[in-house]
Amino acid sequence: xxxxxxxxxxxxxxxxxxxxxxxxxxxxxxxxxxxxxxxxxxxxxxxxxxxxxxxxxxxxxxxxxxxxxxxxxxxxxxxxxxxxxxxxxxxxxxxxxxxxxxxxxxxxxxxxxxxxxxxxxxxxxxxxxxxxxxxxxxxxxxxxxxxxxxxxxxxxxxxxxxxxxxxxxxxxxxxxxxxxxxxxxxxxxxxxxxxxxxxxxxxxxxxxxxxxxxxxxxxxxxxxxxxxxxxxxxxxxxxxxxxxxxxxxxxxxxxxxxxxxxxxxxxxxxxxxxxxxxxxxxxxxxxxxxxxxxxxxxxxxxxxxxxxxxxxxxxxxxxxxxxxxxxxxxxxxxxx
Length: 336
Known about the structure:
By secondary structure, the protein is an alpha+beta fold. It has helices at about 5-10, 15-25, 30-45, 45-60, 65-75, 80-90, 100-115, 115-130, 160-170, 205-220, 250-260; strands spanning about 140-145, 150, 175, 175-180, 185, 195-200, 220-225, 225-230, 235-240, 260-270, 275, 280, 285, 295-300, 310-315, 315-320, 320-330. It folds into two domains: about 5-125, Serine Threonine Protein Phosphatase 5, Tetratricopeptide repeat (Alpha Horseshoe); about 135-330, Jelly Rolls (Sandwich).
């Protein structure tokens, strides 16, 4: 079907065309137009449209969290297996929910009963894997005071690491570099590794559990989408900063809307490779965690300004493959 035909059918109220057009708008960054298509489909009785609208509200700026959660629950209540699966993710990552493990499991059971293989796989993992890490027992070890860098040994279990790798491997793509002044995301020779991103719809209770653990350790609750990074021999990410450069064109709007990228949290997901350290050239220091270890560093100094001593690089492995769980954390934007 041509684009003009899709738009014509969507204009006439065809639900499939509305969903297709909304998905296209979303991929192109036209959030308002995407929401309009999904909302029209939902009002016409489409449970998928309701779920896609909820996902958009939860993952695209401007985020409308409460409305998105309520719509996702409504889609799950109407029988949508994927919505029940996403409700499990929401529960697993909700720090305010005291019985989140039970709620997440119940949502998974509902999704599994409705035929979700992803839900069944997660239930099997929960039932067969060792107990989760006791967050209270984790002891960050300070490596540098300025910039603020800590190491947390045994942050994730071996089973969790293996699970994350298995989830990421099928969907790896060339990693992007973000520059709002250059129309968003693009590939660059300074970064040759691969990655895969796990938004709320693609995530699972294991990944959401790791995110919750990161929130607990760092005491920062504004997390960007989690990324899994893969480095084959010779692939690297050359020296760079993770903070958003306030002086660069295009970043001002991002900083005002989403706040500064204040900190970085890396989980080392595997052993068995040579080289591949995380290097801080201005500190003359390199770190290579064992499987399950984590590295946490602030990209800002104590005054809240970008700390240029945090210049770092992902060095290339000389043999084997390197896997990392990468999480950027933000502080709230300044009040206007």
